[in-house]
């Protein structure tokens, strides 16, 4: 597309693509990130499960952020445990929490920890079990530009508040000296569904921008001042990839898989960093020593010059006293495998494995689940 769309054109184009992206995700048209099992399920569908007859199916739903690693885990675990069939629907953290609360699924998954109010509304105590760490990255599609950009938290907040509207705005130029960007409108893409990826992103922006915290706040679903929504990480990635002039935010593996440029983000120490296994691990280092007993912790805007500022744990959610004890026992056994042997698959899929100290704490926590 040689001519840059005006803002109204951007919105119409984004809305059309958003609708297409939602349909694609629901119909299984997305290609899963590389490195997964040979025949993984697609976002919005169930993650792969064993094909063995007679095995009980364990259903779960929730975050799209960890979908690539969960898909790989369920597939690999099924090869060794034919009696375990785990089906996972990547519908977003908000949907996963709702379905777990309604007990229409056996387990949930979220990138934003449940609030005290949500925990109280559940029919029984729920455990947050960290699985891996990941990063949310700002992705962009700028006509005739394929280089790297730098963003501070306040700059990203101003873009998502609608204050910075052009790619050649002085605020962007100040953080990217010598980079020539077009005088094109910025089209903003965000999540349309209840999303842990959104929670991580707005948690960071609220820490660095008082105005953003006041006007938008921190939740899995927020009222965005500007932009068009896409369903799931795959939906936002589709919006950005298909619409010139767009900025969005996705989990790192979705940027890598879709070959979408993503920017470096300024951390608390003043260093611009691109998301990497090393920078996410550095962000987790400080929290590991002071991990709360319920594992509900935020590591965005972490201390340390090597810490990527939009990093997060992601959690699998299980009832402490499951109604089906046999399935509960199988999920506890799966989780013990996932946080030990399963962590070996994390790096190839763009996630950082759990710190050893967190694994030890979680092994103890798994013992709280009543399976008899």
Please describe the structure with a list of short key phrases separated by commas or semicolons.
D-Maltodextrin-Binding Protein, domain 2, 2 domains, alpha/beta, three-stranded mixed beta sheet, eight-stranded mixed beta sheet
Radius of gyration: 20 Å
CATH topology of the largest domain: D-Maltodextrin-Binding Protein, domain 2
Strand content: 15-25%
Arithmetic mean pLDDT: 87
Largest sheet: 8 strands, mixed
CATH class of the largest domain: Alpha Beta
What best-fitting shape do the alpha-carbon axes yield?
Answer: elongated
Q: CA-to-CA gap between the ends? A: 62 Å
The secondary-structure class comes to alpha/beta
Largest sheet strand order: 2-1-3-11-4-8-6-7
State the total count of DSSP E strands. 11
Compute the number of structural domains: 2
Residues in helices, as a percent range: 25-40%
Query: Strand-and-helix sequence, N→C?
Result: HEHEHEHEEHHEHHEHEHEEHEHH
- The low-pLDDT segments are 1-45, 48-53
Helix segment tally: 13
Annotated CATH homologous superfamily of the largest domain: Periplasmic binding protein-like II
